Amino acid sequence: MVRWRSGTVTAVRRSWRGAVELEVALADAGGTVRALAYPELVGRPEPGDRVLLNVGALVMGLGTGGYALVVAIPDRLPADPPGSGDTRDGGHLVKARYTPLQPILLGVDEEASPHRAALVDADDLDGLPVVTADLHSALPAVLAGIRADAPGARVAYVLTDGGALPAWFSRTLDGLRDELVGTVTVGQAFGGDLEATNVYTGLLAARHVLAADVVVVAQGPGNLGTGTRWGFSGVGVGETVNAVATLGGRAVGSLRISDADARTRHRGLSHHSVTAYGRVALAGADLVVPAALPAELAGAVEEALAPLAARHRIVRVPVDGLDEALRASPVPLSTMGRGLDADHAYFLTAAAAGRHAATLAGGSAAPAGSAAR
Fold it and tell me: For the range 28-31, what are the long-range contacts, defined as Cβ-Cβ under 8 Å and sequence gap of 24 or more?
């Protein structure tokens, strides 16, 4: 459960959209910790402020969540947000529901929303290509693939609640603001440019409010996995494929492929992709494979994909120019602590998915790839 600490802010370090990194001296345990505050939730900390902390992720040594999190600045509480009186003009979507820090937000399709009219009867994505990815780290690589051939494409990001709930946690997302027409946070996730109840309304908002040409759907940072067949948050990828099909979109699978991961279950085609697309997804998707993988890796991927070909379209996409596009990413590329050169196949696969989606959107000059089966 929660591991509580109290302390005093000794320094304000870097900040990015929605988040501030701090140094906090602990009151009882001694020493200092690195902490993260979300000003929209707790106010903006200053040196000398007393803060209450949740240090669970820090104690566990989590790579993604290795911060103490500021729960409150008890001696200097922020003012109530505008529109938070008895009327519901400020929205009534409650996210991170029934936790102590539940925010109350304006949903994109609520009556008080300026976008209500565009969404009240919306029911169709009109063939919109939607890239589905297991990990948040795929986002900049998918974008690189889109931009390689369609630099003017309008790309929206739908952030699901499988990982970090606050969109503000992601420095990657902050660095990609100029590459996106907007972020929609769905389910229990919050902090995007638009808030939606679920992935269905999130996709419709991306299409009808943000006017996206391509949408990328992935969880926030911090994938949860137990090392079992079903125990990982990336099963949501299959559920997104079903939602895309239900709404008349075109799902493009960004597969999790690696020859660098030390864990056998993630070598070649990850068991996450095999389970999500093979067992959870009940509708078809375009599963994208780069046309130039190392021979041994390519063979293992082909073998793992064979059972999925009965439902999905296996598409091989040329990779010319994708390495250069990845190296020009405006944010660092990293997955499980591995950069582009350490896990090239992973990022190349995501970029190939982006290229294919751009082709479907009509904005790519590259060949569309060839259906293998």
Answer: 29/5
Element counts in the chain: helices (H) and strands (E): 11, 18
- Quote the tokens at residue 297: 């890796």
Least confident of 87-91, 115-119, 359-363: 87-91
Query: Rounded to an integer, what distance in angstroms lies between the CA atom of residue 165 and that of residue 143?
Result: 22
Q: Give the chain's largest Cα–Cα span.
A: 64
How many Å apart are CA 281 and CA 276, to the nearest integer? 6
What domains can be seen in the chain, in order of their start residue? 4-72 (2.40.50.140), 116-371 (3.40.50)
pTM of the entire structure?
0.92
Q: Report the relative pairing of strands 257-258 and 250-254 from DSSP bridges.
A: unpaired
The Cα angle at residue 372 between residues 371 and 373, in degrees rounded to 5: 100
Sequence-separated (6 or more) residues with CB below 8 Å from residue 215: 128, 129, 130, 131, 155, 156, 157, 158, 203, 206, 207, 249
Taking residue 66's Cβ as centre, other Cβ atoms within 10 Å add up to 14
Closest C-alpha among 69, 353, 338, 38 to residue 166: 38
For residue range 164-223, what is the model confidence (pLDDT) as tens digits? 999 999 999 999 999 999 999 999 999 999 999 999 999 999 999 999 999 999 999 987
**pLDDT number for residue 83:** 63
